[in-house]
TrEMBL record:
Residues spanning the membrane: 49-66
Residue segments, region Disordered: 106-126
Lineage: Bacteria, Pseudomonadati, Pseudomonadota, Gammaproteobacteria, Pseudomonadales
Protein name: Inner membrane protein YgaP-like transmembrane domain-containing protein
Biological source species: Pseudomonas fluorescens
Keywords: Membrane, Transmembrane, Transmembrane helix
Top-rank lineage group of the source organism: Bacteria
Ranges of residues in domain Inner membrane protein YgaP-like transmembrane: 21-82
InterPro entries, A to Z: YgaP-like_TM
Pfam families: YgaP-like_TM
Length: 126
């Protein structure tokens, strides 16, 4: 019984059945559809190895337009989001360092030097 459940879970989780978010909209999607149809038509008319390459590129563009999802675009968006997160962390660390520097300068501005180096002549009775 558990083997049947595992097989059913595997079947439900195939990449063909998973629904991905759409990241291609509007004119970009229409352009992919139109460009895919044109490239496939040119590839079919041309023939040969270069026609096959055009046919493949057109098929990818057509699939991008039909599904509304582009894996390359989602990878770029993900890396852009990660870059913005790192940038925010760096800016926050810079602000923290600026604040620490200001606090250190404020703390040392009122300090006086006594001339007593505690490593060479420690205070007695402490």
């Amino acid at each position: 019984m558990t083997d049947i459940k595992r097989v059913a879970e595997r079947i439900e989780s195939t990449p063909f059945q998973t629904h991905t978010e759409r990241n291609v909209h509007g004119w970009e999607r229409a352009g992919s559809l139109a460009g895919g149809v044109v490239m496939m038509g040119k590839g079919l008319r041309r023939g040969g190895i270069f026609g096959l390459i055009q046919l493949a590129i057109g098929g990818v563009a057509l699939a991008r337009g039909i599904t509304g999802h582009c894996s390359a675009k989602s990878l770029l968006e993900k890396s852009r989001h990660e870059m913005n997160t790192v940038r925010a962390k760096i800016e926050r660390a810079g602000d923290d360092l600026t604040r620490l520097k200001a606090n250190a300068e404020a703390a040392t501005s009122t300090a006086t030097v006594t001339g007593n180096d505690s490593l060479t002549s420690p205070k007695t009775g402490v």
